[in-house]
Amino acid sequence: MVARNRKNAFGFLKTLSEQPAPALGESCILAWAQLGRVVNHDELNLVLIKLLEYLGRNELISAIAFTELVRLAAARKTDPRRLLEPFWKSLAYLATKDLVSHPRMSEVIANLLQISVHQLLLLIQSHALPWLVLEGKTEVIQMIAEARQETDTWRSIVDAPNLSAILAVLLMQQTDDMEAYVMSRLSAISPHFDSLTLTELLKLEPALTAMELLKAAGEADETRKACVSCRLLSCRIFSWRCPMSVGSRLILIRLHCSDPQRAHHHERQDPWRRQGKAQKKGPPNRSLPPASHPQPHGKADRTV
C-alpha cells in the first residue's frame, strides 16, 4: 500500500511539475523536497533531477530550490556535495548542457557546492562529457578543456576515465554502422579524430571501456542488454592481440542469449574459454605414470 501510494505521488507530482503555470513552481519544489526526505536511494535520483531543473528558472524559483536542496541535505544528515555525489551520472549533463546559452544553473549548482564553475566542470567531467559528445556540445566541451588548462578539446576526451565513459555511451546507441557513427561524433568535436579509427581508440583503454559497457548492460532492460552485449562482443579490440577475460566473455554471452540452452552452447564454443582451460591444464607430464586409484593429498606416487 505504501509503495503504491508513493508511486502515485511521484506520478502526480511529475505531471504537475511539467505544467507551464508559474504559480505551481513553489508548491512543486516544496513537495519534491518533502519527498526527498523519505524516499530510498533510487527514488532520490528523480527528486534531485527535478530540484536541479528548478535552479535554471527565474531568480525567485531558483532561490527556493536552492534553499530546499540545502535543507534536504541537512535532513538526510549530509551536505549538498555528498548529497549529489552518487547521482552525477544522471545529473552532470543537466548541470552543463546549457552552460553557454543559460549559465544560471551551472553557476547556482557551483554556489550550492561552494566551488567555482571551473571546479564544478572538473568534478563532473567524466559524467558530463559522454552526453556532451553525443549531443555535439562543442562549446561546453571547450569550456571543460579550459578548466583543465588545455587548449585542445581532444585532450580532455582521450583522458583515460573520460574516454572509456564516452566510448561506452557512443557504443550503446542504435546504429547500423557503429564505427562510422562513433568516429563521426568524435570528429564533430575535434578534427584530431579524423585520422584515427575506433579500434585504435578502444586499444587505449580496453579494460575500462569493457567495464563501462558491462555496467550499462547490467542496468539495462532485456532489449537493451542484448544490444550492449552485442556491441562489446563485436568490438575488434577483443581479438587475439587483446582478449577479454574468460569471465567477462561468459557474462556477455549470458546477457546476449536469453535462452539458457543457447547460452550454454555458446559458452562451450567460446574459443577464449577453451584457450583458458588449455592453459590451466598445461602440457601432460610424461614422467609420471597414470595412477590406478586416487592418491591421498601429499602422498602422491612418484615412482618413475
List the helices and strands and how they pair.
Elements: H1 2-17, H2 24-36, H3 41-54, H4 59-75, H5 80-84, H6 88-96, H7 104-113, H8 117-135, H9 138-147, H10 153-158, H11 160-171, H12 178-189, H13 198-204, H14 206-219, H15 222-234, H16 246-256, H17 260-269, H18 271-281
Helix pairs in contact: 2-3, 2-4, 3-4, 3-6, 4-7, 6-8, 8-9, 8-11, 11-14, 14-15, 15-16, 16-17
Features:
304 residues, mainly alpha, disordered C terminus
Give a description of the structure.
With about 300 residues, this protein is an all-alpha fold. Among the domains are: about 25-85, no CATH class; about 115-210, no CATH class; about 220-230 and about 245-270, no CATH class. It is about 70% helix and about 0% strand. It contains 18 helices and no strands. It has helices at about 1-15, 25-35, 40-55, 60-75, 80-85, 90-95, 105-115, 115-135, 140-145, 155-160, 160-170, 180-190, 200-205, 205-220, 220-235, 245-255, 260-270, 270-280. The radius of gyration is 26 Å and the shape is globular. It starts with a helix and ends in a 23-residue tail after the last helix. Mean pLDDT is about 80; it is low at about 235-260, about 270-280 and about 285-304.
